[in-house]
Amino acid sequence: MAKTPGRSDLPAAPNPASPQDIRNVVLVGPGGAGKTALFEALVATRVPGQRTGTTEHVRTTTLTAASFESGAVTLNLFDTPGYPDFVGDLRAGLRAADAAVFVISGADDVDRPVSLLWRECAAVGMPRAVVVTHLDQPRADFAATVEMCRRTFGDARATHWPTLSDGEVTGVVGLLTGETSEEHEDARSALIESVIEESEDATLLDRYLEGETIDTESLLTDLRAAIAQGTFFPIVPVAPLTGAGIEELLGMVERAFPDPTVHPLPTVTSPAGGTISGVACDPDQPLVAEVVRTTTDPYVGRLSLVRVFSGTLRVDETVHVSGHLGDFVGHDVAGHPAHDDDERVGPLASPFVDGHRPRGTAIAGDLALVSKLTRAETSDTLSSPERPAVVAPWLLPEPQLPVAIRAATKSDEDKLAGALQRIVAEDVTVRLDHSAETEQVVLWTMGQAHVDDLIAQLSDRYGVTVTAEPYRTALRETFVRKCSVQGRHVKQSGGHGQYAVCSIEIEPLPRGAGFEFVDKVVGGAVPRQFIPSVEKGARLQLEKGLLTGHPVVDVRVTLTDGKAHSVDSSDVAFQTAAALALKEAANESTMALLEPIDRVDITIADEYLGAVMSDLRGRRGQVLGTEPADEMGPEGGWTVVHAEVPQSELSRYPIDLRSVSHGTGSFVREPVRHDLLPADKVRDLLKA
Description:
Elements: E1 22-28, H1 35-46, E2 64-70, E3 73-79, H2 87-96, E4 99-105, H3 112-123, E5 128-133, H4 142-153, E6 156-158, E7 160-165, E8 168-174, H5 185-198, H6 204-209, H7 216-229, E9 233-237, H8 246-256, E10 268-269, E11 288-297, E12 301-310, E13 312-314, E14 318-323, H9 325-329, E15 339-344, E16 348-352, E17 355-359, E18 361-363, E19 367-371, E20 381-383, E21 390-391, E22 401-407, H10 410-426, E23 431-435, E24 440-445, H11 448-462, E25 466-469, E26 476-479, E27 483-491, E28 498-508, E29 515-519, H12 531-544, E30 555-563, H13 571-585, E31 591-605, H14 609-618, E32 622-628, E33 638-646, H15 653-660, E34 666-676, H16 679-687
Parallel strand pairs: 1-3, 1-4, 4-5, 5-9, 6-9, 29-30
Antiparallel strand pairs: 2-3, 7-8, 10-21, 11-12, 11-20, 12-19, 13-18, 14-15, 14-20, 16-17, 16-19, 22-24, 22-25, 23-24, 26-31, 27-28, 28-30, 31-33, 31-34, 32-33
Helix pairs in contact: 5-7, 10-11, 12-13
């Protein structure tokens, strides 16, 4: 978002008079398809003096927004990352927008992740269009791409056709409005038939089949209505670097894409979960807005990108800030504690790529950058203090790739906690864990590119240098056979000495049973006041571990006998004796290591099912069963694999699953138990 405090060469911020004058459009698609080049070309066409890029090969990792006037409307345009690791910024762009432009390469196939994203947009009724780029590449074929889009997306038709000269796209021809030739006739006829099928005029199809010529203006009216309703999806060829197709796409956005009053609003409730009625895209209604992204600007400090759904956001007004992300995901989210606060709105600005322009208000349907909104984090709701509200946040996949980080120096260590707190508050796809058992700071992320970006942010934005280290799983120790031992703690060094002897039996318990302590002392061999001391000493030593320093679980300790001294016995002495007894019993023949096992549910396209099952076997996984993935749609073709896999084998699984499934697989997991670590793994660990 904004990176400078402002630019004098930019025109004034747009000031739409009503929601009907606004268009919110997001560019989505795979990495390398040319979204950023298209974004720059669209902006440069409407903003005098704004230069376009010189290459299409730019990898975007963050959401970029630009608000500018386009014809008679204000266009809020979003460029999103195509790489799956940055899904948080993609979802933020989708939440802020009312229509999506899918940018695909005419030289490549439409991959599964893009088709899944298309279905997600369809599920929420978001109108869509398709832009085809890279038509100057040797393997590009626009006609073949159109057919591929029809197979993948449904009722998608080319509304324009590219004109090529020496392999370069020099222009586009409108199939309804341009001077078409014989080579366009089939595509033109197919487009007209699709538009007529979408028309609300039931007699139009019969008239067309009887040979009547339908006037172009009627066809355009029906075409624009179908696009706005999300029932027809235009395909437009565009060459961002030469500008071919840019005006045609902008004209479609201005005249055919829906305004914010058409797009359904997200679910809105009270902070307690009660129903709130009457929320509408109307500047005169009570305020309901959402923070879709948060960043820290080096010049102006904290910046919140806010989408206004209802009412009007004004500078210096007090708003209610509600954050209840944990209620929607089912668990507490680090950096996003539940809160309800009142806060005064800071300066507002209109975003523009690498700058921003001050403004006084933002009406329903619009978006704005808000400075210094200190109590609001990403996904929080801003509302009227008289009617506090909570917008149901967009749900994201859980981060599944762990990376352990360590501060490079003492100075870095002092700054690391604050920097991590800001990062997890801004990026809802990051989870932070402080593992007391492994003594590691762990970031849970979406993938390796996400990891690299977070480490770069720590360095560039906060001046903190960290190094990544192998992620360690939290093991457990346990006894595998019954044994009897004695612990003696006898010391005499002048004055009161220390004397305690305890005989104990140790035996394994079933998995998950925990710790049991049994007192079988007879005859007062151990005075009653010291029996709790034996239990306490045993518990403390088991928590510290015996073989490798990992906690000991699933064991019963029975105190059978002991000795005490009338003067030298004490609570501490019997604690120490119990610990010594356990240490005496611990060796490789009596003990084993346990590793954590996770239940894993993998959703995968059927064509990659065999590869995923084979990969699970290589991870010592146990497949529990499979079932159709009903949540992926009634057409089938997807399977959920249920398995149990050692946690240590999943540390790189998000990366490996993406490779095995060609980017289509996803998974969730939860810990279920600890199981015996194989002997070869134990030997390797003991050697280390």
